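CORE FACILITY INTAKE
Project code: CF-77B
Contact: R.S. (postdoc)
Sample description: multi-component assembly, three entities in total
Requested service: structural model of the whole complex
Turnaround: standard
Below are the sequence entries exactly as provided by the requester. Do not edit them.
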Amino acid sequence: MDEKLRRTRPERLSPSWLDRHKKTLVLLSMAAPTAIWLFFLRYLPMGGIVLAFKDYKVNPRNPSFVSNLINSDWVGLKNFEFLFKTNDAWIMFRNTLAYNAVFIVLGVVIPVALAVMMNEITKKFVAKTYQTMMFFPYFLSWVVVSYFLNAFLDAQYGMLPAAQRAAGEAVTNWYTTKGPWPFILVFANLWKNVGYTTVLYLAAITGIDATLYEAAAIDGATKWEQVRYVTLPHLRTIISILFIMNVGKIFNADFGLFYNVPMQNGALLSVTQVIDTYVYRAFMVTGDISRSSAAGLLQNVLGFICILGANTIVKKIDADSSLF
Amino acid sequence: MKKLLAMLLACMMLVSLLGVSAFASETELEPVTLSIWFHGSTVTPDASEKVMEEVNAYLQEKINVTLEPIWGTWGNFDEATVQALAGGDKVDIYFTSNWSANEYNKYARDGYWVKLDDMLEEYAPHLVELIPQGIWDCAVTNGYDGMGVYGVPALKDTATQICWDVNGTLLASLDYDVDAVCEAGLDYYSDEFEEMLQAAKDAKGGDFYPLLIEPAVLERMITHTSLVTGDLNGANVLSYYYDPEHPSKDIGSTIVNKFGTEEFAKFAARTYELAQKGFISPSCQSPATANDYRTATQSSGEYLFSTQSYAFGCELDYAKARGIDVRMVPETAAYMDCTSGQGAMMAISATSPNPERALMFLDLLNSDPKLMTMLNYGLEGYTYTTNDDGTITFIDEARAQYSPWTNGMGNIRILPPTDAQGADFYERFSAYYDAAETLPFGGFIFDATDVETEGAALANVWAEYAFNLMSGAVDPETVLPEFLQKMEEAGINEFVSAAQTQLDAYLAG
Amino acid sequence: MTKKKNLRLNSVSLGTEVVIHIIMAAFSLCCIIPFVFVIIIAFSSEESIRAIGYSFTPLSWSTDAFSYAFDKLPQIWRSYFNSIFITVVGTVTSTLMCALYAYVLYRPDFKYRKFFNFFSFFTMIFGGGLVPTYVVCTQVLGLRENYAALIVPLLVNPFNIIIMRAFFKSSVPLELIEAATIDGSGEYHTLFRIVAPIAKPGVATVALLNALAFWNEWYLSLLYIKRNKVLQPLQALLMELQNNVQYLNQMAGQLGAAAINEAAKMPSQSLRMVLVVLIVVPIACAYPFFQRYIVAGLAVGSIKG
């Protein structure tokens, strides 16, 4: 009885409790499905982060994951050592950062330019056709893309070496010549992702209130001025958000691009090796999950620091566009 | 309330008592379900259901087991088993080996497999009998519970021999006496070898590449290095030292960095020379295209010499498939080592609730021809038919839906021979493999745990140089010293000396 | 002001538009050619690939690989169904969940907005890794050997939540929400009847991203569908074949003759491309459906008078 009394008391004392909190409760109910999902599929597994500091072994007496995790020995930072073992370690960090930096900058400039241009095409049907075609590379996996590129560059069957042979020139072996690869990789990455990103900006442009353009036009703004003073400010939020999020992934390279597109050729490794391919190659020979976890954790921590930095910068420039 | 509970308890006890007496009177073994994870299967769900129905009827009668197979494929086995093992899935038996991701020795060390020594006599008497001691020795590894057997090795092609695969049809058309050439053997460094390649190239045109190589195999075959079990998986850097004049005979007690030997320098220089002369296709020199190209070129017979890690009787299959005369010219002797001894095994998972029953199943699988044939080849009348001479003929349509990896399952010597193999195949097969020479370091397994950091770095250095050097894509004059330098930085010396220390201890004990 | 006048006044000059067309056409062509290439290989004969490799101009044509795909892979139709089922159910559910969550984050008057914002954002950067996630999915949530295992793990993507919120923010003025609240519109009603219709391009974009994610997913099947292979989606079937070939190739040195025998059984190179075609075509056909909402308002800004 006591219990029941206690439970009903607040309501009786303040009958508007439900009313006062109704909005919050309803909003909470809306957030609930995703929040519950995040809890189970993202937060619960985070306990596994300790893997990075353990020498994971199975305890045959009680071989469940949690018991294994608890029983495995702590090894401190030993699992991180392999990343810095060779003198080439800096090469993969350099490659990862440099490529991602280029991807981030061009990945904003080009899609925004394309989206703005597309918005100016008067024939809607044509614009749609372009847009559909630009999206196609996104459907193809990196493995398929690598076959495609190989059709041009293959030393035996490729079209470029064939052309060189026909012209009587010395045949280039593209897969052992480092020089062009930074450009090839940047181009391949843009080619694959531009269509996808353009859609985001295009959708944002579509959401702009048409009357703003009319007002600008009446005020005598040229097309360029309209883009500058109406379109771009509207895209600011989404540009900043994509920028911040990409900065957070600056230590994570697109594995498929760097592993498959250069056809895994060793001679190109100094321009194609990134953290993810290094970790993968190490994992293939050692099969050690602790070490992969360690590498992943390091990438995440560094990414987190970068994202906080990027967010602060954006916040300084435009508080509304920051992520949090 | 209490009354209700008491009644419930009584009921439960009664039921369990009844249950116990019921099965005690019927059969001694309680029914269990065993799951077993195979490698390299091409089995559709429908075909599996059909075959398993009969397999399980038979198994229930024999050992009261219901088998639940997981048909791992070549492509997904590694990734899926690593997750399942680390996550503690309840699977009873896993395929394992020294080349798959759930590497036998490492996983034994980390506690994933059940130690079998104390159970073998009781639950697997046939297995103890049937598998030769030399192969059992290879299964002994330093696991979580000390030295012992942590998996059941498969009795399959248990020796290693590397041969030249010679296109006899093409060689004959170049006016060579094929039998004489094959009899004399091929010398990679000789002028005659080069002349034959040149003759083939002249006859077939500039786009023809007579020397079809698989770089890692070519390297092992020419320099006569031998794999050290426990070396980096897929990026081998170690070899036993040997006397190049007497390969395979005087294998000593020393482990070396195989890329640091004089023989390797000589081999790399020769391969580069042959590649420069246009005998090796550029497609063979790129890791991503090499294999598709090799498979396609082999099957069209557009080569003169190729490299082949030999399996007994494979030349017959190849000749039939390629429509040419295929000859195998041995370059190394056939020897039994743990590379082949651990090539396919079945291990019982630490998570298995019924390890004894799992072992009983493995015992039956390896000793009962009916069970092995059903699981491996399918059902008579569905996937194959039996001929008068005891051989079987596959019904291609159904066999395509049900083809587990034959050698991965266990004792293949109890299978009926196929019509292509001929009725006496397994007699000849056994004779060949049983005659194989056993090497003194037979059972040595290198435990690289303490040098894994070096191993991880070495694998990446390997990826940068080794393939190109072994395929003749780069000039060893400049690249080999660079490679050795980087290996040193990555810790090859620590890696080699760790292996050497362990080998010394092994040979002393 | 007449429509015509406005058009001229407020669009780029003809010259500029021609330049735009040239740039767009060139880039679009660049994007579509590889797919044409894939189709050509799918129809190339195996002999041609053997003789001259992958080429835009094969020596001879063949539809063998297509008939092989449909004859020899009885699973293919079932996989098609699985893929479509997973994509439809997954896209609807995930887009709905995303919209609900993004709406909550979009409301500045929500008390715990900051918390929930960080709650989702944090998971973009930190995760427990594969194995712990696998353990939670299989052992806590029972996601194995069922459709749920192929849908649930992909339901939430914090990236999409942030995108969706950005779209809400930029296209729906807050005054509208306030007005709706005063009119007595409930939160759900406000979201579905007022906010979502206005932010239609955003919702469609997120739905498209979700649909692609579900359609392209193959790794979940590798992890969670082992015994009950009839549930395998199409992409997983393709990746399995692809991986089989790749693996045998990598392992040829270790496996020796066994690998060669197995590799000979593997599908031909043209078959691999056939499977790419079979996967891309359906989703490419579904694309215009989403695009209708994304590009609907395009150019309207400059024409509407």
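Facility notes:
- Chain C touches chain A through 112 residues (CB under 8 Å).
- The longest helix of chain C spans residues 75-106.
Invoice: internal transfer
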